[in-house]
Amino acid sequence: MIRLSRRTDYGFLAIQHLCSSPPGAYRSARAIAARYRIPAAVMAKLLQRLARKGLVASHHGIKGGYQIARPPAEITLWEIIEALEGPVRGRPCPHGSIARCRRAGWCDGRRPVLAVQRKIADVLGRTTLRDLAALRGRND
Predict the structure, then answer these.
(1) How far is CA 23 from the centre of its chain?
(2) Does pTM surpass 0.85?
(3) Cα-only R_g, the chain
(4) Which of 27, 56, 71, 95 is the most buried (most CB within 10 A)?
């Protein structure tokens, strides 16, 4: 099943912060970390991961920092999750195949869980940051 760590929660906070910043403005990892009471070193690592995947852009120097790299309509939630968590996959059967499994009747029970996981990944892959902001706006 898909498991999201605290790092993904923090990463979404950082991305949300950058999306709400004025266009062209850079925000430091330290400032974002302070805003959400997250250790600065943790935030810096998360932003570096997001930058390596092209989701945020970094700029070095005195007025440097991070900004969103693409329009929110072009960044999916799945991209963010995989940038922070790495490739997300279901756990394979430890026996390699149903035919070799000592509990073949029970292994078939994994199929519904894997189907649910695929559906979740599909929804996250179609949901963009813009969609998320629109949902948040309706719930405020």
Answers:
(1) 22
(2) no
(3) 19
(4) 56
Per-residue pLDDT tens over the stretch 79-119: 999 999 988 765 555 556 656 655 555 555 566 777 888 89
Domain 6-139 grouped into CATH 1.10.10.10:
yes
Look-up of token digits 């989701």: 55
Q: Give the tokens for residue 116.
A: 């649910």
In one-letter notation, the amino acid at residue 19 is C
Place of tokens 């991961």: 49
DSSP string computed for the chain: -----HHHHHHHHHHHHHHTSPTT--B-HHHHHHHHT--HHHHHHHHHHHHHTTSEEEE-STT-EEEESS-GGG-BHHHHHHHHH-S--PPPPTTSSTTT-TTHHHHTTHHHHHHHHHHHHHHHHH-BHHHHHHHHHHH-
